[in-house]
């Protein structure tokens, strides 16, 4: 059929879709079939997918238990669109979800089904704590990502909002205080306490604090467990609801079913999406009943009753729980991190390797461009993009993230086998070496040519 080749499809996409498209720019493939870790493109090539729908596919593509759950609903004749009415499918999902939550929260929880995306759940959580407390301000963190709608974007630092107070997130490699490690986390906590307790700080008691236990889009930065516990104490002592965004970290991704479990923290609100829908759109907010101050209809959403997503989500949650995939992610992730750290020793352009479970980041830097003393080298986004393209050429799909888009991110499915992990690492190592060879080395400081004299320009 005329114009059905993958190149034609890509060309039509570039002509018809908005300039805001992202993954399609760096990953010019047309997926037509997929199973587990593997995607087959319309060009006949096979790819190992370590993007997993930005962490959505906990069980990989088209897992049999997910397909069977969806097929069962379709064959049953059950309605697919029911707004927020009670159904057996919804009841099964809610029961399975509550069975996985931290016990203290599950025993006293309410759940709100939101619009279909994680950003919708973030908006609902912000509205919830503002309604429950009667306050308006919000504490959020540098490097955060909570979504692309107005309130979520403001909490992410992507849009100005006088109601949001930005706090320093602990970052061992690029510490905002220049110390790193435990000292940097301690200073972050002290800064937070000072802002809240100093009557002249300009920060009044907020409606809530929102935090990621591992910053994903911010560059795969795990929060220290002691720091998370400190944030819990700070908020609890001041009657500030703690909102934890588990949209990307949830359902076993970090080596625990929910990332907050590493620190033993029980938040007041959990924001959940991505993997909970088993590859289909689903988002919820789970929160303590004491915050349930909404009037009927105070928050709604036409597609909050997605029956297929609930069925797929129930199957996914149960499979991860019953097969101990969170524990498997922790074990395999630690092994992959160790191997990547070994690789880093031979490649000066690898500044840092970090992560938790199967949420892994490799920050690439320019080792020839020294920054101030005792600071990390400058980020190398062009090199990261080159590595991503070299990976794609070798049949490996990876994502980029971080403040400067210089962190190569690995988000493989939790079903990743040892053999597949070896294949991923081999392809990544080969791609890294190829991208490194292609770099034009900077001249050493002693041989660097003098800077050209700038041409005269208009004064300001």
Q: Major β-sheet, in short?
A: 7 strands, mixed
The chain-level structural class is alpha/beta
Helix content: 25-40%
The H-level CATH homologous superfamily of the largest domain, spelled out, is Type I PLP-dependent aspartate aminotransferase-like (Major domain)
Tally of helical segments: 14
CATH class of the largest domain: Alpha Beta
Distance from N terminus to C terminus (CA atoms, Å) equals 60 Å
Mean pLDDT, rounded to whole units?
92
Q: Which architecture name of the largest domain does CATH use?
A: 3-Layer(aba) Sandwich
Low-confidence stretches: 444-460
| Proportion of residues in β-strands | 15-25%
In spatial order, strands of the major sheet run 4-12-11-10-7-5-6
Number of individual domains: 2
CATH topology of the largest domain: Aspartate Aminotransferase, domain 2
Gyration radius (Cα, Å) is 23 Å
Please tally the β strands and state the result: 17
What general outline do the C-alpha atoms trace?
globular
Family: Belongs to the class-III pyridoxal-phosphate-dependent aminotransferase family.
InterPro entries: Aminotrans_3, Aminotrans_3_PPA_site, Dat, PyrdxlP-dep_Trfase, PyrdxlP-dep_Trfase_major, PyrdxlP-dep_Trfase_small
Pfam families: Aminotran_3
Keywords: Aminotransferase, Pyridoxal phosphate, Transferase
């Amino acid at each position: 059929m005329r114009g059905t080749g993958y190149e034609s499809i890509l060309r039509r996409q570039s002509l018809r879709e908005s300039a805001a498209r992202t993954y399609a720019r760096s990953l010019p493939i047309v997926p037509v079939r997929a199973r587990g870790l593997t995607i087959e493109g319309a060009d006949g090539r096979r790819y190992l997918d370590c993007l997993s729908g930005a962490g959505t596919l906990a069980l990989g593509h088209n897992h049999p238990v997910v397909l069977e759950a969806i097929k069962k609903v379709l064959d049953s004749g059950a309605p697919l669109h029911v707004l927020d009415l009670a159904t057996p499918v919804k009841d099964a999902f809610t029961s399975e979800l509550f069975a996985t939550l931290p016990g203290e929260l599950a025993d006293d929880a309410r759940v709100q089904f939101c619009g279909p995306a994680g950003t919708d759940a973030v908006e609902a959580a912000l509205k919830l704590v503002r309604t429950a407390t009667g306050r308006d301000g919000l504490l959020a963190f540098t490097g955060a990502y909570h979504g692309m709608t107005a309130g979520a974007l403001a909490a992410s630092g992507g849009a100005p909002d006088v109601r949001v107070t930005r706090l320093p997130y602990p970052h061992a490699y690029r510490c905002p205080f220049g110390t790193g490690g435990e000292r940097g986390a301690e200073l972050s906590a002290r800064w937070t306490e000072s802002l809240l307790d100093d009557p002249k700080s300009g920060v009044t008691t907020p409606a809530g604090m929102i935090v990621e236990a591992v910053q994903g889009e911010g560059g795969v930065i795990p929060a220290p467990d002691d720091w998370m516990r400190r944030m819990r104490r700070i908020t609890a002592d001041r009657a500030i609801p703690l909102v934890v965004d588990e949209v990307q970290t949830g359902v076993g991704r970090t080596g625990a079913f929910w990332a907050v479990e590493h620190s033993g923290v029980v938040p007041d609100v959990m924001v959940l999406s991505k993997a909970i829908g088993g590859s289909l759109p689903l988002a919820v907010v789970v929160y303590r009943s004491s915050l349930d101050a909404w009037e009927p209809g105070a928050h709604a959403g036409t597609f909050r009753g997605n029956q297929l997503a609930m069925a797929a989500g129930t199957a996914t949650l149960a499979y991860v729980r019953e097969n101990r995939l969170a524990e498997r992610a922790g074990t395999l992730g630690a092994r992959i991190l160790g191997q990547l750290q070994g690789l880093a020793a031979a490649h000066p352009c690898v500044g840092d390797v970090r992560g938790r479970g199967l949420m892994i980041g490799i920050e690439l830097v320019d080792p020839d461009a020294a920054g101030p003393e005792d600071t990390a080298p400058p980020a190398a986004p062009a090199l990261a993009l080159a590595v991503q393209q070299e990976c794609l050429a070798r049949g490996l799909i990876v994502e980029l993230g971080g403040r400067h888009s210089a962190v190569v991110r690995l988000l493989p499915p939790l079903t990743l086998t040892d053999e597949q992990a070896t294949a991923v690492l081999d392809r990544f190592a080969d791609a890294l070496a190829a991208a490194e060879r292609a770099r034009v080395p900077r001249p050493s400081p002693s041989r660097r040519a003098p800077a050209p004299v700038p041409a005269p320009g208009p004064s300001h």
